[in-house]
Structure formats: C-alpha cells, structure tokens
Amino acid sequence: MTQIKKDLLEVIENTMIPEVEGYLEDLHTIIEKKEQTDETMEEVRDIESFLVELQNIIYAVNEDKIDDEQATEVYGKIQELIAEGHSHE
C-alpha cells in the first residue's frame, strides 16, 4: 500500500470517524432530550451519510479500488474539512 493510502486511512480512522461519531452522539443526546428541530434531524441524516462515505473510502482503499491520484484528492478534501472545522472553534 502506498504512503498516501496509508495516510488517508490514518486520517479517516483516527481523526474523522471519531469526530463524526462524537458529533453524532451529541445530536442523539439532543434527540433523547426531545430538544430536536427539523434541522437537527436533517443533520443526523447528513452525518450518518457522511460516516457511511468514510467507511466506503476505507473499504475502497483496502480493496485497492482507488488509485493514488484519487487517494490524494480525497486526502486533500479531508484536510480542508479538518482545517475548516478548526477555524470554527
């Protein structure tokens, strides 16, 4: 496996998925307290969909279904998301 694919897996498994799952737990807590809005429910669907996309990327990398160019592109987009998230904190 090439370095970019290893880097991509690492950032997804160790950064993105834990952050997405944590955020999803926060949203579910809002729902459990019956404080949700339509926007909250839509956000849950969006985040769950994003989590599935991340899992699909892991599968594609492990099954060698994406090439290094695609891996580089996805890695760059994820880095942008991370930077964007940190700029909102």
Q: Can you offer a commentary on this structure?
A:
Helix content is 84%, strand content 0%. The protein has 3 helices and no strands. The protein is elongated. The mean pLDDT is 93.
Give keywords.
single chain; 89 residues; mainly alpha; elongated
Detail the topology: elements first, then pairings.
Blueprint: H1 3-32, H2 38-62, H3 68-87
Helix pairs in contact: 1-2, 1-3
Contiguous runs where pLDDT drops below 50 for at least 5 residues: none
Number of strands: 0
Number of helices: 3
Give the overall pLDDT as a whole number: 93
Which range does the strand content fall in?
Answer: under 5%
State the gist of this model.
The chain contains 3 helices and no strands.
